[in-house]
Design goal:
By secondary structure, the chain is of the alpha+beta class. The chain contains 15 helices and 17 strands. The strands form 4 sheets. The chain has a 7-stranded antiparallel sheet. The protein has a 4-stranded antiparallel sheet with strand order 5-6-7-15. It has a 3-stranded mixed sheet with strand order 1-3-2. A hairpin with a 2-residue loop joins strand 5 and strand 6. The longest helix has 36 residues. It is globular and about 70 Å long. The two termini are 32 Å apart.
């Protein structure tokens, strides 16, 4: 199960005929789709270990924070002891990803991102996530879903090949997809119920799961509307919160069970927050990649998302989006020919022209397809070709200036600019009498939406005031 929600830009950017979006890591693409496994140290590697290494590498690598790793292992041990299979072995890995995500494999490997730890506010909230993932393993959800999918594929193939009825096969396939999606949704809700009962037996506050789900919903607000598509494999956050509260109330009244808020916050004090500078960072509308030595600025009213495949942007009204990615360009002699090569369909040949962008060789073009207008650019930087696409629905080329401004902002970083990029981290601040979210958020190293981000990080809804003497999380350099 993935606790992260796909970003709204993914659906919009799909019209660009490029590779699909990903949400799990924060790297501009390299020529290799999947980093190689870590080298062997001693002995013979098991296949499961090699797959674990490949998975960790593809998701940004592991993140070393000994205090948090120790705390996660302790939580897992307490939770497993409270399950019906206390001898099952588990291994928890902390991932170097700013996204809020956790998932488990049938092998007992559990993966938690540092982004999730930054969002949580006490032990019970993290325990709720871990218990949910353990429930997926103990209930054998992955194998059950795979079996259902295999049976559905077999039925569809029999109808198509044996009965020679392709149209009926398509109907069966569509019905199977709905069944599998519903099955997965049911699994998520079941894992929530099992997980909350498990965490309560382990001594944790059973309401922690609902609190974290509420924070997850606030964290996603404004980035991804809650999907009502019946094919969605995860229940909506409000649905999960309602069930989590109902399950917790059936166990105990509020106020019982361990939370250990102060101890948990001390554990994550100083942990990295947001993008890893080694993989590029977003600062307001600017994207800065110190290792690659490049930067650009997104158009006004665009949000930026740094993903494994590309840097994505989507306008506030959802009517436009951009994508910047890179490919190896050692064997590409002409950028104009590159734009004609089919990278984007239906390019207008007459629109292709060479340009220079901040001393860099480039070429631009336009294309139109299915009611969308595309502005394209290919820029050579070193041995790579950076591809910029801005897609919009406008008919009067209103997106042209936005594209031109973004393209003209793409440039190399100076040494001083590279050295000036500092990682963000979580710090702790104690509220004094009279302090408000506005006063504590004022010094946070975030360009936009400081107060809202402060509330989200600390699990505070708009009506909640600060408690004098209480410790809260802030973001600093």
């Amino acid at each position: 199960m993935s606790w992260a929600t796909a970003r709204g830009a993914c659906a919009l950017l799909g019209v660009m005929f490029l590779t699909s979006c990903a949400t799990e890591t924060s790297k501009l693409p390299t020529s290799a789709p999947l980093p190689p496994a870590a080298p062997r140290v001693t002995g013979v590697e098991r296949a499961a270990d090699r797959e674990h290494q490949r998975l960790v590498a593809s998701l940004g690598g592991s993140y070393r924070w000994p205090a948090a790793e120790t705390r996660l292992r302790t939580m897992v041990a307490k939770l497993v002891a409270a399950t019906d299979t206390p001898t099952q072995g588990y291994r928890v890995t902390l991932l170097n990803s700013p996204t809020v995500n956790a998932f488990a494999l049938p092998t007992g490997n559990i993966y938690v991102t540092r982004g999730l730890l930054a969002l949580a506010n006490d032990d019970s909230e993290v325990a709720g996530v871990l218990a949910h993932e353990i429930a997926h393993v103990t209930a054998k959800h992955a194998s059950a879903r795979a079996e259902l999918a295999e049976k559905s594929a077999l039925v569809s193939r029999v109808v198509s090949e044996v009965l020679n009825n392709p149209s009926e096969s398509e109907t069966v396939t569509n019905q199977s997809e709905r069944t599998i999606a519903g099955f997965s949704r049911a699994q998520e809700l079941e894992a929530d119920r099992i997980g909350i009962r498990t965490m309560a037996r382990a001594g944790y506050d059973p309401y922690g799961s609902a609190r974290f789900l509420a924070s997850l919903g606030r964290n996603s607000n404004g980035r991804q509307p809650q999907a009502s598509n019946f094919l969605a494999t995860h229940p909506s956050t409000p649905e999960r919160i309602a069930q989590a509260l109902s399950t917790a109330r059936s166990i105990a009244a509020p106020g019982l069970g361990e939370r250990h808020r102060a101890e948990y916050l001390a554990t994550i004090n100083g942990i990295a927050y947001g993008d890893d500078p080694a993989d590029g960072v977003v600062r307001g509308r600017a994207f800065i990649h110190p290792r690659l030595g490049i930067t650009f600025t997104a158009p006004e009213n665009f949000s930026i998302d740094n993903t494994a495949q590309a840097v994505l942007g989507v306008s506030r009204n959802g009517e436009a989006a951009f994508r910047l990615d890179a490919v190896e360009g050692g064997d590409i002699n002409s950028l104009e020919e590159f734009l004609r090569s089919g990278w984007i369909e239906k390019v207008d040949p007459a629109s292709i022209q060479p340009v220079t962008v901040n001393g860099l060789s480039a070429a631009t073009a336009t294309a139109e397809s299915n009611g969308w207008r595309f502005h394209l650019a290919a820029v050579r930087i070193g041995s790579s070709i950076y591809r910029l696409v801005l897609a919009s629905r406008d008919r009067d080329n209103a997106s042209g200036p936005a594209f031109t401004g973004t393209l003209n902002s793409l440039r190399r970083l100076s040494d001083s600019e590279i050295n000036a990029v500092k990682p963000l981290r979580i710090a702790l601040a104690k509220a004094n009498p009279g302090d408000t979210p506005d006063t504590l958020a004022a010094g946070m190293a975030i360009a936009n939406g400081r107060v809202e981000r402060f509330r989200v990080l600390n699990g505070l809804d708009p009506s909640t005031s600060l408690a004098p003497g209480e410790t809260y999380k802030v973001v600093v350099e």
